[in-house]
Specification:
heterodimer; A: alpha+beta; Ubiquitin-like (UB roll); DNA polymerase, domain 1; B: alpha+beta; Aldehyde Oxidoreductase, domain 3; Aldehyde Oxidoreductase, domain 4
Chain lengths: 164, 783
């Protein structure tokens, strides 16, 4: 079936199987491998991207975080997706959340990072007035095995503060 | 040029990882690659009566279906175990796919090769396996009886017994004379490493010449090259192994896996690229597990609580097969069961058995967390028995700083340490006295929120390892690390390392080490690694070895580069080498500031070779292979504060204070990150994680919904401190920090949990200290 999704501002249309997951559409059809697959139970959050449906896409912002292994590509048809590759500015300037992860050493192996950053962007979009508890609860769906979360939380708090 | 070592340099690895530009193995675009999917055993122990592959073969897009016997015929040798710990160790043959019997749930049976991942998966579902059930061996003590055997052909489930008993009579005498003894049994539950990146492999044959490149999510590309040659028969010089970005390992990617041999063999057979990527459920079942042992530990102490003897007997679970270093893992702890304490008499014995479970092997800390757990729990038991504060009991027993270098009762030489300083700082940072007061107050008022304070002190042996010591332990390989430092004609620098990072910031930190010696900007340095064509010699990354061994090699190679540059500078500036000083990246003739040569210019001179000293070889490059003279011995004191809801048994970690000493601190930012992550893996063993098997040997925790890897929501932020006691055994004074947090935190947490319940009479909680277990312990104690 033909599925059309605006990915990082670019219209992408591919013929995929009905069972194709959004993450497979992104990684395999679009070649955007920044989004990772870390489990098969929607537990780890490595596949988190921002999604807006066709109405939401018209509104400002990137949309809300979704686990792209939990959505069929077909469900995203007509919508808009932002992946980690689409987050930095055109000139390469890192998004404030990316920059905060860099400055606060919020990543080690980097495998969970794309999902973690996208979840954090969505969290800050919803609320810039975040406490540490808010951040910890807000990132509950994203697992990291390297950092112990300490520096991730510091990074998100710093990014939220600079966004407020 | 300001020194970078000791400063919080931001990681150069980050931009590619933060923008999605970095490539992990499964991200590699390899057009035309075939995909492998494995049919795995659904029973823990069974004879394979028949495998019907006809349905799979009939599916369009299926290229090949290979059974265990067919695969064996494609290979030169079974999968390796590189550590025969005793002369009489019993080891089964371990072929990548089971041939007659399956021996754990997840054991590979058949490999399906197809044009796409989906076709391979669909076809695998059409493979029919007929099993005859065999008795399942799960209980470690029952395994010793040998009533049922994991490997009938071996005639026993016992793999080996390994002993370190310098003087048994002296140990017996110490126990006979002891004023106090404790005898404890602890269970180290099995853990699943769960690196966030599952394993992945891609094998790409070269279009001509017979060479083949294996990309693998591995910690050990150099080991992998050697063992792929041995297992598959492809000559070693025809194999190139590349580890692209690797998404965490924690020991689980320190191995030679069945799928690596399968992919290489099938790529050779088909002449096409072959790839495989692991699903999370496979990761839980077919990637190694960690821990898994019963620990019996006894302490003898005099009337003042000074420990006079430690006696340890382990029964360790090897799982169904011996993976690369499976047998050696318990023995990495064998030397550390007396912990940080000055104990004269020591006895250690470990017996290891096969069971019908996933093989165990290295998991963060590998033997040392287990050892630290046992001694630190036993010290708390002794403190409770004697009515002494656990901090005070530790203080009385510490190896004192003036005793270093310390000849340990297990035969090691601890390089340096000041345990009491770390304890003082940890007690001070945690506000230990007021915590105890608050605990008393809560108990006095009958609060249902019970406060527990847990201390652990640890020392680890890392910087693996002096090759001759490894030889004495019967390990097949060495423990050195290699480095090449090369100043290119235009003055840019390549640092080539045999270490293989997977999140540890080697590129950043190795640049810092080279920059400080060469006195060039860090940005002019590129670090090359994890590709055997670029870095042919290496022993890879595990065991907190990379800085102490690999970093030292880079430091020494950089010094050799400067030495060669000095000789060229002296020749061209027409002075003696002794008349030169090296400042800010240039050689200056002392007292004649105008006569200088920067190292970049010298690099070009070395390249053009027009005017070099007689007999000097061109190019400005040096290599070193550093074989360390000793292990390094990082240490620290951690304090955990927990609150237990007496009505539900739920444990909340309120605070965590960690004071670590890893010698010279190269990059504090990176050190802190390692400590944070390490702490959480240890806390997770104490409170949440366990590979649970049912009585049939089915793994019940084979997904991230069942296996409780903690999220941010379960954890607090951490309070870190440090002391600095440089190691005298390497020129940087570094020790290593990769495993410290994990080693220290598990006993700190369980000590805190038991401490919270101590006034009720609870003396131990089996890990993980789930709400159910804690609640039950409270009920039983207060019944």
């Amino acid at each position: 079936m033909q599925v059309s999704i605006t990915v990082n501002g670019v219209a992408r249309s591919h013929d995929v199987e009905p069972r194709t997951l959004l993450v497979q559409f992104l990684r395999e059809a679009c070649g955007l491998t920044g989004t990772k697959v870390g489990c098969d139970t929607s537990s780890c959050g490595a596949c988190t991207v921002l999604f807006a449906d066709s109405e939401g896409a018209a509104a400002s912002g990137h949309g809300e975080s979704v686990k792209s292994c939990t959505m069929f590509a077909a469900q995203a048809d007509g919508g808009s997706v932002t992946t980690i590759e689409g987050l930095a500015a055109a000139d390469g300037t890192l998004h404030p959340v990316q920059q905060a992860f860099h400055e606060h050493h919020g990543l080690q192996c980097g495998f969970c990072t794309a999902g973690m950053v996208m979840a954090a962007v969505s969290l800050i979009d919803e609320n810039t007035n975040l406490t540490e508890r808010d951040v910890r609860l807000g990132l509950e769906g994203n697992l990291c095995r390297c950092t112990g979360y300490h520096n991730i939380v510091q990074a998100v708090l710093a990014a939220a503060e600079s966004a407020s | 040029m300001t020194a970078t070592i000791g400063t919080r340099v931001l990681r150069r690895e980050d931009p590619a990882l933060l923008t999605g530009e970095a490539r992990f193995t499964d991200d590699l675009a390899i057009p035309g690659a075939l995909h492998v999917h494995l049919v795995r055993s659904t029973v823990a122990h069974g004879r394979i009566r028949a495998v019907d592959t006809s349905g799979a073969r009939a599916l369009p897009g299926v290229v090949d279906v290979v059974t265990g016997a067919e695969l064996r015929d494609l290979l030169a040798a079974p999968l390796p175990c590189a550590w025969a710990v005793t002369e009489d160790m019993v080891a089964p043959e371990h072929w990548p796919l089971a041939i007659d019997e399956v021996r754990y749930v997840g054991d590979g049976i058949t490999a399906v090769l197809a044009e796409s991942r989906e076709i391979a998966q669909d076809a695998a579902e059409k493979v029919l396996v007929d099993y005859e059930d065999l008795p399942v061996v799960l209980d470690l003590e029952a395994a010793l009886s040998g009533d049922a055997l994991v490997h009938a052909e071996l005639g026993t489930n016992r793999s080996y017994t390994w002993e370190l008993i310098p003087d048994a009579a002296a140990v017996d005498a110490a126990f006979a004379a002891a004023a106090h003894t404790v005898r404890e049994r602890y269970l180290q539950q099995r853990l699943i490493p769960m690196a966030m990146e599952p394993r992945a492999i891609a094998v790409v044959p070269a279009p001509f010449g017979g060479d083949v490149t294996m990309y693998s999510a591995t910690q050990v590309p150099h080991f992998l090259k050697i063992f792929m040659a041995i297992v598959t028969g492809v000559p070693e010089h025809k194999i190139r192994v590349v580890a692209p970005s690797v998404g965490g390992g924690f020991g689980s990617k320190l191995n030679i896996y069945a799928e690596e041999a399968i992919c290489l063999a099938l790529a050779q057979r088909t002449g096409r690229a072959v790839r495989w990527n692991e699903e999370r459920g496979e990761n839980a079942q077919a990637t190694i597990h960690g821990r898994g042992m019963i620990q019996d530990i006894e302490l003898a102490a005099d009337a003042d609580g000074r420990v006079t003897a430690v006696r340890v007997n382990l029964l360790a679970d090897m799982g169904a097969y011996l993976q690369l270093v499976t047998p050696g893992i318990p023995l990495l702890g064998a030397f550390l069961y007396h912990g940080v304490y000055d104990v004269a008499n020591y006895s250690f014995s470990c017996t290891s058995v096969f069971t019908n479970r996933t093989p165990t092997d290295a998991y963060r800390g590998a033997g040392r967390p287990e050892a630290t757990y046992a001694i630190e729990r036993a010290m708390d038991a002794l403190a409770t028995q004697m009515g002494i504060d656990p901090a005070e009991l530790r203080r009385r027993n510490y190896i004192r700083k003036e005793q270093f270098p310390y000849d340990s009762p297990a035969g090691l030489v601890f390089d340096s340490g000041d345990y009491e300083a770390a304890l003082d700082q940890a007690l001070d940072r945690s506000g230990y006295t007021s915590l105890r007061a608050e605990q008393q107050a809560r108990r006095a008022e009958g609060s249902s929120k019970l406060l527990g304070i847990g201390i652990s002190t640890f020392v680890e042996m890392c910087g693996l390892a002096p090759s001759r010591v490894l030889a004495s332990l019967r390990y097949a390989g060495g423990g050195w690390e290699s480095a090449v430092v090369r100043v290119l004609p235009t003055g840019k620098v390549q640092v080539v390392t045999g270490s293989a990072p997977h999140g540890q910031a080697h590129e950043t930190c190795w640049s810092m080490i080279a920059a400080d010696v060469l006195q060039v900007p860090m940005d002019d340095i590129e670090v090359l690694h994890s590709d055997t064509a670029i870095a042919p010699h290496g022993l890879d990354t595990y065991g907190s070895r990379s800085l102490a061994v690999g970093g030292t090699a880079i430091h020494l190679a950089s010094e050799r580069v400067v030495d060669k540059a000095r000789a060229i500078a002296a020749h061209q500036l027409e002075c003696a080498e002794a008349d030169l000083e090296y400042v800010g990246g240039e050689f200056r003739v002392k007292g004649t500031p105008a006569r200088t040569l920067p190292i970049q210019a010298i690099a070009f001179e070395a390249f053009s070779a027009h005017n070099l000293p007689d007999g000097m070889e061109p190019t400005l490059e040096a290599n070193t292979v550093w074989d360390p003279p000793n292990f390094t011995f990082p240490f620290g004191v951690h304090v955990a504060v927990v609150e237990i809801d007496a009505e539900t048994g739920a444990v909340q970690l309120l605070r965590y204070v960690a004071v670590d000493d890893c010698g010279t601190r190269v990059n504090p930012l990176v050190i802190e990150g390692q400590v944070h992550g390490g702490i959480v893996q240890g806390v997770a063993q104490a409170l949440w994680e366990e590979a649970v098997y049912d009585s049939d040997g089915q793994l019940k925790t084979s997904s991230l919904t069942d296996y409780l890897v903690p999220s941010a929501a379960e954890l607090p932020s951490f309070e870190l401190g440090h002391t600095v006691t440089p190691s005298p055994t390497n020129p940087l004074g570094v020790k290593g920090i990769g495993e410290a947090g994990t080693i220290a935190s598990t006993p700190a947490i369980v000590n805190a949990v038991v401490d919270a319940l101590a006034h009720l009479g609870v003396r131990d909680i089996t890990m993980p200290a789930t709400p159910e277990r804690v609640w039950t312990a409270i009920q039983e104690a207060t019944r």
